[in-house]
Amino acid sequence: xxxxxxxxxxxxxxxxxxxxxxxxxxxxxxxxxxxxxxxxxxxxxxxxxxxxxxxxxxxxxxxxxxxxxxxxxxxxxxxxxxxxxxxxxxxxxxxxxxxxxxxxxxxxxxxxxxxxxxxxxxxxxxxxxxxxxxxxxxxxxxxxxxxxxxxxxxxxxxxxxxxxxxxxxxxxxxxxxxxxxxxxxxxxxxxxxxxxxxxxxxxxxxxxxxxxxxxxxxxxxxxxxxxxxxxxxxxxxxxxxxxxxxxxxxxxxxxxxxxxxxxxxxxxxxxxxxxxxxxxxxxxxxxxxxxxxxxxxxxxxxxxxxxxxxxxxxxxxxxxxxxxxxxxxxxxxxxxxxxxxxxxxxxxxxxxxxxxxxxxxxxxxxxxxxxxxxxxxxxxxxxxxxxxxxxxxxxxxxxxxxxxxxxxxxxxxxxx
Length: 416
What we know:
The protein is α/β, with parallel strands linked by helices.
């Protein structure tokens, strides 16, 4: 039965919080009133009267007149405290905090069942693209074979400006921050962590498999250099930060990595702060979704959609969890990568199963080959600013049993 009115308690009044507030005051299709907004900074100037604000979370959490808690803060730990307290108090929850949802996924499902309340988080994944709702409703019985895409609008905005407008990485990042697409600390966006949290959440709805984010490999774009950009342009490629999950023979392979994209790839034309998602189903085949992936109003629109759904007491059903084809998670597989490095010492820890191409000069060295993705997780490799790694246009994934392939592994120094 539809609720005629909802009373909201809002946590956070940053870019997304203000975007939501603007949208609520403009839309005519839903009657939802923000009664109180909890913020942390007492000195910050606000665009609406002070009477709407509180600095005590319990004022909102313990108010019986408030039906829905809308959580839009940056701190994932505090966000979980707020959300769990709200659910225990019988309040419905809408959140955009992908880190919190990914890190506490099983706990949130348990709280949902124990307290018989809804928790919706469409805005936590691809901002304006309703990807979770589509996976829940349209793909609920379609066997999803793969899902891949650009899940982070901030990094995509940076890459667009680097490739199309010839800006330096640092200048493109600064521009993204000025527009509110990237945080003051952009680590989550450019490191691939943000995309990894989102992929972890999406996996649960696409495949019925909660793959903890710490078990998903990720690399970012922070060490991208002009040499890598020129190499890509010479080959008529673009570089995108791509998150992907592929189900093969009952196993689920998930990773986030910069990737060379050619003109025939759907993601090639996804630019600026837009996200693009490709879902391949066993019966529906490939479908593509595009929408803005950063900014207050696009993300706020996804929050509003969840609030609207709560007027119908909507809940995620997690239907894939109860089906018999839930895959197991695989973390040991081969992909083909391009690795740019400064000298051999940078990559002497890496082991290639095969090497397809090499180039060495005084100021530009790279190698292309198949490598066990676990090898790329070495801390010294991931944190070395002299190294940039991208998956090639060859998107094939091969399972690997390392114990049976030791003789086929080549240390870089042995292979050159």
